[in-house]
Structure formats: structure tokens, C-alpha cells
Amino acid sequence: MSVHGSAAEESAFVRTYTLTGGRTRPRHLLGLETVLEAGPGRPGPSQADECRQILALCQERRRSVTELAGRLGRPVTAVKILISDLLDANALVLPLTDPYTSSDDDPRPTVQLLAALSAGLRKKFPDAIAYPQAG
Description:
The chain has 135 residues and is mainly alpha-helical. It has helices at 3-19, 49-60, 65-72, 76-88, 111-124; strands at residues 35-38, 63-64, 92-93.
């Protein structure tokens, strides 16, 4: 590795450290697939430019944690910390009804939720009895 490459990596690390204020863990439990949308609050004036970028992206449409991290080009953990800040400011919210329930009138889980549950159980218990997949 060249000296220039090492300096670039160190610079990226320092930038991420300052971006999160030295924090290494988000305050909210967020999965990679967690979907967020813009809320009524606003980020504070001292929050990073990336917070405004996250908010702008979520104002266009709902976005997942993974998509936000990819669009910002930042590590997922750092983006989760920024999202936690925005959740605390009520600038972002977690839409609870979609995609996990059919509607407000019909609280049954959606096919997407059942498929995610099934995939998670298969991953957690790979040696369990295999049942035919619904097609």
C-alpha cells in the first residue's frame, strides 16, 4: 500500500470519527432494512451536513438505512448514529404501518413480513425441518 493510500484511509477514519462526535453506537435499534421517512422536526444547527442530506433524501421518498449509507458513501454504523440524532429531533420517523401490516383496518401481517420472518428463522435454525417454499 502506498503512503498516499494510507493517508487517505486515515483521513476517512478521522472524518467519520468527527462526523459522529466520537460515538460508536446509535441510540436507536436500527436494522439495515429499517425504512425511514421525513418527520415534522428539523435537525439542529450543529448537526452534520450529512444529516441534512439524509433528511432531503427521506423527504423525496421513504429510504432504508442501507440505501442512505450507500448514497452518502459513509459506513452504515456512522449513518445509523446520524439517523438516531434525526429520530431524536423528530426530523425522521419510522413508518410503522407499512410494510408490516396490510392497512389500518386490517392488522394482519403482510406477505413481506411473513417472508422476512421465514427467512430469518431459516437463517437462525438452518438444521430445522425444511418445509416446502410457497411459490
